Amino acid sequence: MIQRGIATFGLDYGRCPHWLFERMVKLGREMIRAIIEEEGADMFVKRIADPAWFQSLGTVLAFDWNSSGLTTILTAALKEAIRGQEKELGIFICGGKGKVSKKTPGEIENWGEKLSLPAPKVSNLVYNSRMAAKVDSALVQDGFQIYHHSFFFSRNGAWAVVQQGMKLPHEHNGGLARRYHWHSDKITDLVCEPHSGIASLSAELRLPTLNLTAKASSQTRAVSTEMVQAGYQTLMKDIQILRRHFSKLSQTLALKFKDEEITFMNLENIEFSRHPVLTEDFTRSKYLEKILRKLCDEKPENYEKILAAGGVGPKTIRALALVSEVIYGAKPSYEDPARYSFAHGGKDATPYPVDRQTYDETIGHVKRYVAKIRK
Question: Nearest to residue 151, comparing CAs of 177, 180, 176?
Answer without folding.
Answer: 180
